[in-house]
């Protein structure tokens, strides 16, 4: 068996110097049937290694409940079959523009800011998780015939905290559970990040998008010896809803890559292929500059990242530029590109034949209703991704007063006595028209994605402060949650009727007939905010504010002939709503 080691000035494979040319590709953002193609694209670009995170919350939705942890092992087997090495970053925190940075909402709801410290209430759960996860990784290490050459301890911890005892405990846990390959940390190339996030005896790496020489000089102040590695070379960036689509000039990015390699360093392209945050798992950031305390900025469903391999798996101009740079570091001719995936043969319209109002969907698929003095949060109701209906009565008779929702996260469609009265947000929490009593108020509150980076990590969702009429808190709140996971077993229990003749929120059901199944994109003209499932596969969130204008439908999701479509419209959509349609990518 081979051995991978950290030498005094570089990496060693069986005692011989080796440079890591790695690319990030998240198995959870690519349909499993397309892993082989995407890994082949990385090899063709000139890479010899792939890096992936592991999102804890995807695999443990509730305490004691685990879901397809075996996917990690299957992906690593695909990596080995593709002739690549693997770097695994199991967290437990991963960032990755992923819901809650990969931490389960039930964990941060319970532990709050104690998460990512050595507080026993958090680390006990981490130990249980790693003992379930690591059996998928340990047997697949290089010294046991597998592809795994390094494992990361936490992720960019120095930009969050300074509890190095927590990092030491994680490193010790990895070792005690059988990780024998080198461990590493990754942080920004700043003194406070490297002092807070690195560990003695563990390889320290840095993350940046440019100015490699300056970044490595900072690293050398902290680590005079050992390999140089940019663990995240940010060759693109991600998008926020209602923002601009971010791109980076391919020639400029290629020159930044060349500078890293000219420093004698190893590199991991972040991202080599971004993929898609299927299932509503996209995270969010807080604006407001370096403090990350400003308005919520939810991430779009596409994680294209302006990567060299685009969301659909196609090579871009950046791919060609990077391939040219990387070819100089390859021992022979680069492999050819793999055959492209099949593409949808012809456009196809979705025919929507059934509809159920939100209340009917909630009754069929929602959790139990609670009655409490103050509104419970999503976490208290066990809702991760989805929405909660809050119902409260305004006593009367009383004159019209402003209705305010304090601590709203993130968006509420408000109904007063059954009539839509407006949309509230964290920044605009007061209903435009005052409300007189008596009245019944319904708030359908939607989470737009949990923060995945910064000091607001783990903040609760829902109504976190209270509902006020003038200055008076309204008590006696009924709440019921609808989690997106409730759709996993289908919608057979939902009482569908005929779709309404006008725009309306609710769950729509229909079919699309496909000829020539293959990769497609779903256009949703006239829709506002919705989630879409095709044959039970959740494509993610669509929002008319852009910049994303369609949803990616992987070819393996589709089948020849009729395909079932569910569309959960959360706002109602525009008055003129053409039918959704599938188009070739």
TrEMBL record:
Keywords: Glycosidase, Hydrolase. Residues 375-476 form the Beta-galactosidase 1-like first all-beta domain. It comes from the Bacteria. The keyword Hydrolase applies. The keyword Hydrolase applies. SUPFAM superfamilies: (Trans)glycosidases, Galactose-binding domain-like. PROSITE patterns: GLYCOSYL_HYDROL_F35. GO terms for molecular function: beta-galactosidase activity. Residues 505-563 form the Beta-galactosidase galactose-binding domain. Pfam families: BetaGal_ABD_1, BetaGal_gal-bd, Glyco_hydro_35. It is an enzyme of class 3 (hydrolase). Gene3D superfamilies: Galactose-binding domain-like, Glycosidases. InterPro entries: B-gal_1-like, BetaGal1-like_ABD1, BetaGal_gal-bd, Galactose-bd-like_sf, GH, Gly_Hdrlase_35_cat, Glyco_hydro_35_CS, Glycoside_Hdrlase_35. Its EC number is 3.2.1.23. PANTHER family: BETA-GALACTOSIDASE RELATED. This is Beta-galactosidase. It comes from Streptomyces cyanogenus.
